[in-house]
Amino acid sequence: MLGLVAQRLAAALPTLAGVVVVTFLLTRALPGDPAAYFAGPAATREAVEEIRRTLGLDQPLWLQFLDYLGDLARGDLGISITTGQPVLADLAQRLPASAELTLLGLAIAANFGVTMGVVAALRPGSWVDHLCRMIATAGVSLPTFFTGLLFVYVFYYVLGWAPAPLGRLDAFSSPPPHVTGFYLIDSALAGDGETFAAAAAQLALPALTLGIFALAPIARMTRGAMLAVMSSDFIRAARASGLARRTLVLRYALRNALLPVVTTLGMVLSFLLGANVLVEKVFAWPGIGSYAVEALIASDYAPVQGFVLTMGVLYVTLNLLIDLAYQAIDPRVRIEA
Predict the structure, then answer these.
(1) pLDDT score recorded for residue 104
(2) What is the average pLDDT across 111-133?
(3) Are 75 and 118 in contact (CB under 8 A)?
(4) Do 322 and 5 touch, CB atoms closer than 8 A?
(5) 112 phi/psi in degrees, rounded to 5
(6) What is the end-to-end Cα distance of the chain in Å, rounded?
(7) Which three-class secondary structure state does DSSP give residue 135?
(8) Strands (DSSP E) along 239-331, which ranges?
(9) Which segments constitute the ABC transmembrane type-1 domain (predicted)?
(10) Under 8 Å CB-to-CB from 101, ≥6 apart: which residues?
(11) Which residues partner with 332 through β-bridges?
(12) Could you give the CA distance from residue 198 to residue 216 in angstroms, rounded to a whole number?
């Protein structure tokens, strides 16, 4: 197991090196001047040049890159000129908000997607199958920002069921004591039911928005895998031996259909990490997605580079966890490895 983890991490190093190089070059190719933005519209040309020298932007590109690599080697992602704080501290502060939102959205999508896929596979061609296909198609066709705005209009503005889309807690609640950074977990650990309810209410609509967007690929992949497994010889033999349908479906068919579904879950989680940028802006969610967008608008290089590098590390970690999940689901994967 440890050998496999070391092998996967070693194979990921060239990928992360490529992410560092490409991100550095792309941020320098973007339009906009961070020195001019930081100096303000009334700044003189001399003041802008002075800020450019202070930020090191007057240096040749290769020298800026070497300085960037040196900072990375020391675990320093730079300073954000928009917040004035180290990028690493900003990301550490905002990452739990994005992770809580993304994981809850994935949990919603996985529960409903797998259930819909199994039900549709057990009744192919029926009205249930068509209904699942229609819901999945609608979910993937609607952009996340449109679904989010629609939910805000219906559930907040028209019905008044949801709180105002203004962050992780309403104005009358205080954040729970920091343990994990996940408000639901921290408030539960603190035994603060009122804060837990407030955090869950704020989280419901953005998580549902992400969940609907991610529903389609999970449902379609589950349906296809279940149809293939249900037509296999060992399922026919189990059915002929009189095995109960519930046991046959849940214990044998679904477990054998899970491998492609787990792969899809990993891909969907990667998509959600990027898709939550728009959802965070719609719901004023203080995550790393909105942080990266604001930095991009200000041509603030360091936060953008730190965001992309963080996404790369998360993606590599996610793929490693998927490989380990393969072995837990199907022991033959471990033998072949």
Answers:
(1) 92
(2) 87
(3) no
(4) no
(5) -75, -40
(6) 10
(7) helix
(8) none
(9) 95-326
(10) 203, 206, 207, 210, 276, 279, 280, 285, 287
(11) none
(12) 29
